[in-house]
Amino acid sequence: MTYGSLTGPLAGILAGRYTFRLVTLIGAVAQGLAFVIAAFGTDPYFVSFTIGIINGFAVGFLQTSSIGAVSQYFAKRSSLAMGMAAAGGSVGQLVVPQILRFLLDYYGYFGCMLVYGALTWNSLAASALFRPLSFYADRRISRVSLHADGLWKDIDSERISECDDCTKITPDNQSSGAVDGLKGKETSEISELTDKEGDPDKISNNGIMNGELISLDVNFGSTTMLGLRRDGVPKVDDTADNLRHIKALLDPEFTRNPRFWLYAMAILLANPTVHNMVMFLPPYANEIRLSKTQASLLLSVGGFSDLVGKLSGGILNNLQLIRTRNLLGIVLSTLCIISMACISFPCYGSLMLMSVMLGTLGGIYTGINPICLMEITGTNKFPMAYTLAVAIHAISSLGTPMLAGVISDATGSYKMAYWMCISMMAGGAVLFEMEPLMTRIMTNRRKEQNNFSNNKIDNSLSEIEMKDSVCVR
Length: 473
Prior knowledge:
It is a multi-pass membrane protein. The chain has 473 residues and is mostly helical. The chain has 18 helices and nine strands.
């Protein structure tokens, strides 16, 4: 899990240089190979290398590219889309163990690994559906024909009417017009397209869609839109420098943003605790002398609740009743209170309540967490920002379980490990609630800088006027 998170930045760089589809395909192939190769392993270290490192590498590619791609496809219902994408992992946690148990019983270890490796290759078909945004743009605008003496547009109105997000595109005297097909009301006009060199294939324009088509499609590859050919196919330039995708990880637009680092500190504290507190339930249940059946049931209930939480979190956030960052803070605060009560009075009923709430509220937290990051960085910067967030999560996930294990061994109980996790979760909740304060501080600072700049300009103008008046005299 940690190794997969550490490969997130590499996946983000490759997705920026090439496409999300290619990165997802690489992850799908690598995951299947990991289990097929593991089938021939007889040494524990060999199996750990294949399933742990190679499969972790594949999971990192699949997770990062999948979330990044989903963030680009949806604008109106992005919270629900993110929740459904995250819920896929919860479904896998419920279904895959049963499949593996069945395969082990009937085919043994060798056959189980081979069959499961083949099953994972089915994700290749899903990866192939990560089409670039220009593919859907071509379906909305069926035909755009350019002539040397002007621009005329022949719009297939039936295709436009099929899209929920589209508004009608109306030509304007066959020379210019408002194109709202891709971005709706937010899209500005194409005011002028001229043929500077006399070649209809070499069109100079003032920014198609006000740059919106360019900024969206660049996340699916390194190409840059140059214009439209006669047949309406976008022309691209793929000669961009490869290093710019690595430099994008240090893009000052979000790495110099205090709100991003406040978010990073919050997930550094909260993310590993939400996941580890569920995993600590079975050993803690054994510690208070519950049966093994009861201990395993706690984990199963938590997995099902996690699925419900991720789906309901997307729906809840999509209603926009409360800001995402405030919702995250409320979820973590509620988890802290419930966990403290359950740990203070340990029994089967309290642990079952804790499992349900950790699964449900933890699922809500996991499902809408990327939405909070998207609100901070914007859609275009989200893929690279998400890769950094995944790397930060990996660092925390590596250290938190080890620290919890040391505390449990030193005290002889998992109770102190739970109190450590609750304290970290409370810190994350406070940081999420501090984000509006940080936004207000940044806004006031910008106003002060603007006022200072305006005053400086006014003083300079006053000095110039005084010098001019002296010269006139």
